[in-house]
User: Which sequence fits this backbone?
């Protein structure tokens, strides 16, 4: 194609994708974003929320001995109050009261044996654990003799 002067006409070069993005960024910086645009951008940047888990059974870890004592007394009082109309329900309240009273000592018991050995509050790294049969063999000969 030629222009009216007889010289070849140059077709305008298509801007590359990078140039188009730069032009878009410059255009956005020149014009302040509207409030709705600002909210939309913030919503896109915000991390997706975790799905809400269904409520689970309450844990006994947060309850102290005082809570178990109060629970035991309340269940015992409920059992005594309901003994006339329903002896079976009163017996169930008595059992729950006893279990709640026993939980005072069960919760205070030390946790299971700690497999991590510590020295002055720091964990010791003793390497990989031996197989279970080696542990049982070692424990058999470590204690006093068995007859």
Assistant:
């Amino acid at each position: 194609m030629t222009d009216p002067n007889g010289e070849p006409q140059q077709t305008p070069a298509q801007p590359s994708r990078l140039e188009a993005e730069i032009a878009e960024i410059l255009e956005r910086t020149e014009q302040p974003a509207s409030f709705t645009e600002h909210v939309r951008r913030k919503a896109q940047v915000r991390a997706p929320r975790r799905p809400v888990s269904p409520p689970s059974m309450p844990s006994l870890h947060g309850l102290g001995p005082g809570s178990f004592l109060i629970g035991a007394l309340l269940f015992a009082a409920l059992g005594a109050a309901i003994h006339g109309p329903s002896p079976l329900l009163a017996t169930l309240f008595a059992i729950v009261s006893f279990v709640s009273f026993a939980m005072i000592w069960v919760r205070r018991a030390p946790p299971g044996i700690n497999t991590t050995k510590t020295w002055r509050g720091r964990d010791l790294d003793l390497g990989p654990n031996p197989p279970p049969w080696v542990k049982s063999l070692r424990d058999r000969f470590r204690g006093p003799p068995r007859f």
In short: Strands lie at 118-119, 122-123.
